Batch of 2 targets.
Target 1
Amino acid sequence: MFRFLFLLSSILYLNTTSTGQKNIFPFDDTGNILYYKVVDTPENNTEELTKKAKEFFKAWYELKDKKFEKLISKKYSYLTFNEEEKVFESKQEYVIYPGRFLKHAKGAVSYKLVVELKDNKYRYYINNFVFHPYELNRYGKYAPASGKSVALNMITLKDELLQESDCLQLEEALQKNITMLEDYMSKSFIVADTTEKKSSQISTDW
Amino acid sequence: MKRLFLLTVGIVLFQLGYAQDEPAPVTISGSVDTYYKYDFSDHENIGTSFGEDQNSFSIGMANLIFSGETGKASFVADLSFGPRSAGSLPGGNSGAFDPSFNIQNLYVSYALTDKLSVTGGYMGTFVGYEVISPVGNFNYSTSYLFTNGPFQNAGLKFDYAFSDRVALMVGLFNDWNVYSDENDVADFGAQLYVSPVDGWDAYINLITGPESGTEFDITTTYQITDAFMLGLNAATYSAPDFESEGGDIDGGSFTGAALYAQYAFTDNFSLGLRGESFTDDNLGILSEGKAKVTAFTISGNIGSGPLKLIPELRLDSADQEIFLDADDAPTKSAVQFLVAAVFGF
C-alpha cells in the first residue's frame, strides 16, 4: 500500500512539473517559449507586404496613420520598423485576470513580436516572454512589482505565480494575435502555401 | 451597510452580463487582517500606528477595493472597516469628521496622453515607505516615520512619465488626512521617480503647505537579487511656526531614517529587519522637548499565497524615559511580540 501511494505521488509530482507549460506553449531547442512560422506569399513583393504589416500594427494598436508613422520613426518605442532590413519589432503585453470575474489583475506577460519581410514571403516569431507579477499599491491599484519579473518559461505551474488556466488564457490571446496578423498579411490575395515550418530555432537563412 | 450590499450585488449582476473574453470592467480586491500582540510591560507602550491592543486577539481591518478602467478613464473606490481603518481615516479617532465615510482611496483618473495623466479625488499619500493596507507592508507594526507622516492627500495631480525610468508628479492638495479642506486648498506636492536600474526604484517627495508644514521624503527599494531586497526611507518635517505676542514660536520638527532588509529563504518564508532612528524636536510625539528613539523590528512572512502569517518581535529604545515598564515606572525601552494573519484577495 505504501509503495502504491509512493508511486502514485511520484507520478503526480512528475506530471505537474514536467508537463504543464510544455503542453501549452511551443518551446525552442534552448527551452524558451517560441512561436515561429514562415509564410509563403507568392506575387507579393516586400513593398506590398510592408503595407499589409503596417495595416496590421495600426489595427492592433488602434493607431491613426500620423501617430503610427511618428511611432515607428522613433528609435526606442514599443513598435519599431527597420526600413533597410524590413523588420517590424513590437513589444506587447497581456494582462492576466484570473477567472476574469470580479478579480484584480494577477500580472502581465510581456513578449516580443517580430515580423520580417522578403519578396514573396514573410516570417514572424514571438519570444522573450516575461511575467511581471502585480502587487497592491498605495493607491488601491494592482501594479507591476518592481524587480520581481521572471521569465515565463522559468515558472512551473505548481508555483503560486501562475495557474494552468492563466497560461491557457495567454495562449488563447496569442493565437488571436497570430490569426489577426495572418489575416492582414493575406488580405486581397490568396495564400498559395502556408505550410508551417517545424523549425525550433530562429536562423538567419530562411 | 445596506447600500454597500446593494452596490456589490449590482456589480456582480453587471459582471455576469459582461462578455467573458474581456477583462472585467470592475474588479474587486482587498484584504482582512487579524493579530495578537503582547507587550512585555503588560500594557500598550509603543506609540506607532495600528496593532495597539495588549494581550488580545484583535482585528485589523476589512478592506474592499473596487476599481475599473474603461479606455483612458479609470477609478478606484477603496473602502475599509475596523480599528486599523478607524485609526487611519479622518476623524477615525478624534471625531472631527464623520468616520462612517470609511474611504481610503476614492478617485478618478484620465490618461490625457500616453505619458500624461490627471487624477483627482482622495488618495493614499505618495509620501513614505509604508502603507495603511497590511498587504503592502512586510512588517505588521509600523514605523515612526509612517505614523507621523501623511496618510492621505486629497487633491488634483498630474503624472508625467518621461520614460520607464523617470517620472514626475505635481499636484495641489488639501491639508493632510482630510476629506474636505476647511481652510482652502493650499498644499503643494511633488514626486520625482527615478529607476537607475531594473529593480531599483527611488522616489523623492515633497509636500508643503502653510497649515500642514513641510515634509521632504526619500523612499527607495532595491531588489538586489531574487531573494534579497533593501529599502530605505528618510524624511524631515517642519511644522509651521505659531504666532504669539512675543513673536513666532518654532512649531517643531522631526527627522528620521528607516532601513529595511528582507531575505526570502524559500518561496514560503521570508525574514525582514527594519531598523529605524527617529528624532522628535518639540513636536510632542515622543515627549516634551527633544527625544530620539531607535527601533528594531524583525518579522517573518510565512506563506506565498493569499494568506500571510507575520510573527514579529520589536524592540524600541529611547534616549529618554518615554515608555513604561511592568510597574508603570518610566523606562527607556519597550519590547513587544505579535503575530498577525493577513489575507489578501
Target 2
Amino acid sequence: MAITLQKGGNVSLSKSAPGLTKIFVGLGWDVRATSGDEFDLDASAFLLTDQGKVRNDNDFIFYNQTISTEGSVEHMGDNRTGAGEGDDEVIKVDLDKVPREITKLLFTVSIYEAEKRHQNFGMVSSAVIRVVSEADGVEIARYDLSEDASTETAMIFGEVYRYNNEWKFRAVGQGFNGGFAALVKNFGVNV
Amino acid sequence: MPAILQKGANLSLSKASPGLVGVVISLGWKLPSNYSRPFDVDSSLFLLTQQGQVRTDADLIYYNNRSSICGSVELMGDNYTSHPASEWASGNQLTSPDRNASTGGSTGGSTGGSTGREDLEVIQVDLSKLPAEIFRLAFAITIHEAASRQQQVSLLSEVVIRICNPAGNELVRYALPQERGRETAMILGEIYRYNNEWKFKAIGQGFDGGFAALLANFGIKV
C-alpha cells in the first residue's frame, strides 16, 4: 500500500522498511496519442552536500551521465516517448554506497524542450513518478504529475536525506519556474 | 467568476460547485471571416471507460446520435446562433436551449459566410445518471470534409469550451490558444472521475487525421 504523501510530508525509510538499502525512482507516462511532438519526460538525480550543492558536475545523474562516481546512483536509460508498460525511466539508488559527504539525494522530473514544444505535465497522460523499495517492489510514495503538477514543466519530486543515522524520504512536489536549466544551475552544476 | 484554465490544467467541479449533478457544456467557435467556401464544424462527445475507450459505438454522441442510452447525455442542437459565444458573458443566465432550433444541413454543421459567424453547441449531462463504468466524457470538435476542403481547426478563432451549472452560472472555461497546428479534429476538454470527485481538464490536443483518427483513438472502428 503506497503512501500518497502531501507536499512536504516525509517518511522514514529506515523505520517503514528496516534494512532498506536499495530504492529506485520510477517515472512512467503514456505515449502521446494525439498529433504533435512526442512527450519526452526525463528523470534526474542530484547528489548534494549539506551546503545543498553538488561536489562537481559528476553528481548530476541524467540521460547523458547515467552513473555516479561511486556507483550509488544509476540511471537505467533514457526513454523519449513513454513507450512501454510501467516505469519508463528508472533511477536506482544503493543507499549503502552513498559517500558520507553526500547528505541528500534529490530527484527531479522535467519535460525535454517543454517551452519550445508548448508542453506541460497536464498534457501528458498517466504521468506518475514514484519511489519504490527495490527488494519487494513496495511503493513508498507516488506523485501524479498529470493531475497535481498539471501546469508545471519541471519539478522537484522528492528527496532522500540523512537524519540521525537513518535515511528519510520527503515528498517535495515543487514546480520550478524558469525551466530545468535554471534548476540544474541552482544546485551548482555547470550547464 | 469562472475559472479560466490553460492547456493541461484541471479543476475539481465537485469543489467548485458542491453537489453538482447537472452540467451544461457549451462548445463555441468562430468561423473565419471573408471565407466563401463551405466550412462545417461539428461537435461530438465520447463516453469512455477507465481504459479511455467506448463500450460500444453508441457511446459516441454526435449529430446522428444525440443522446446516450443511459439518458444522461444529450446534444441539444447545433447552429445555436441565437446565443453566440460573445453574448455568454460570465454569470449570464443561460436560457433553456430550444431543441427545435437546429436547422443545420445534413452534417449538422454550419456554413461559413463573410461575417465570421459564431457557433455554439450545447450538451447537457446528468452526472448522477452516468453508469459507474464511464470514467470520462471527452468533448471534441471536428471539421467536416477537412481533407478535401483543406481546412484545419487553426482557421477557427475563439474556440472555447465552457462548463455551466443548470442555472447558467459558468464554472470553468478553456479557450484554445491560436496555434498553427494541422489538426482537423480537436479534443477541447474532458470531464472525468478522480478520487470520488468530478473534474474538468483542458485538453486542447487533436488529430491531423480528423474525425476518423479521433474515432480510432477512442476505440470506434469505421
